[in-house]
């Protein structure tokens, strides 16, 4: 993970967490409707939004082009577990449930083994809890970034390290930003296919 440790590949992770932290109010996580893609425009290709649809099951509502490249297909509508080896799927289910339930921030170190047509690939994933318009913590703002050649797809990962931190342990900034009403569009417009960047879409739909 040397290149991750250098900070270059970790930049999208840090930018997303800083943006999310700036939206915190007391011990309450941000609303899904507060997420403005203009605040994440430099890292949209690595960004995704998950929806909890059942215990242990979260699916992609939105996903940037980097995730599509890793999967070799459009991942919108797919479960989060589709990025993980079968042996790691119970683990990622448990982690996502903790993010929703506590709520908590999860920072994951991932690895995809090398085989014919692909080299070993390392990645990082950040999961940040969000409230839906109903007030329940059932959304996640996430970032996934890999370092190195993707090679043959789909790439599936194991979890080599998990760091969970309760939201109550996060220091809230003193200067709070104004709440925005612009969010990611989730139903009208699809994300670009692999090989292109995410389009910026402004909508009030959730």
Briefly say what this structure is.
This protein is of the alpha+beta class and 206 residues long. Helix content is 17%, strand content 27%.
Radius of gyration: 16 Å
User: What is the number of strand segments?
Assistant: 6
**Strand percent estimate:** 25-35%
Low-confidence stretches: 176-183, 187-206
Calculate the terminal CA-CA distance, rounded to whole Å.
36 Å
By secondary-structure content and strand pairing, the structural class works out as alpha+beta
Q: Looking at the structure, what is the overall shape?
A: globular
- List SSEs in N-to-C order: HHEEHHEEEE
Mean pLDDT level: 84
Largest sheet: 6 strands, antiparallel
Q: How would you describe this structure to a colleague?
A:
The protein is built from 4 helices and 6 strands, in the order ααββααββββ. With 206 residues, it is α+β, with helices and mostly antiparallel strands. The chain has a 6-stranded antiparallel β-sheet.
């Amino acid at each position: 993970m040397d290149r991750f440790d250098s900070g270059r590949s970790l930049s999208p992770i840090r930018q997303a967490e800083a943006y999310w932290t700036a939206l915190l109010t007391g011990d309450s996580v941000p609303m899904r409707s507060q997420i403005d893609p203009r605040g994440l425009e430099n890292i949209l290709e690595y960004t995704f939004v998950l929806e909890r649809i059942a215990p242990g099951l979260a699916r992609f509502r939105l996903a940037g082009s980097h995730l599509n490249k890793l999967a070799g297909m459009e991942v919108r509508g797919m479960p989060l577990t589709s990025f993980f080896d079968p042996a790691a799927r119970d683990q990622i289910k448990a982690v996502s449930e903790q993010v929703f339930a506590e709520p908590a921030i999860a920072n994951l170190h991932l690895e995809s083994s090398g085989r014919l047509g692909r080299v070993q690939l390392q990645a990082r994933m950040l999961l940040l809890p969000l409230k839906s318009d109903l007030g329940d913590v059932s959304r996640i703002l996430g970032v996934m970034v890999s370092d190195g050649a993707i090679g043959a797809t789909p790439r599936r990962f194991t979890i080599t390290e998990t760091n969970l931190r309760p939201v109550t342990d996060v220091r809230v900034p003193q200067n709070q930003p104004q709440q925005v009403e612009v969010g990611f569009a989730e139903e009208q417009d699809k994300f670009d296919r692999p090989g292109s960047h995410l389009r910026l879409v402004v909508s009030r739909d959730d």
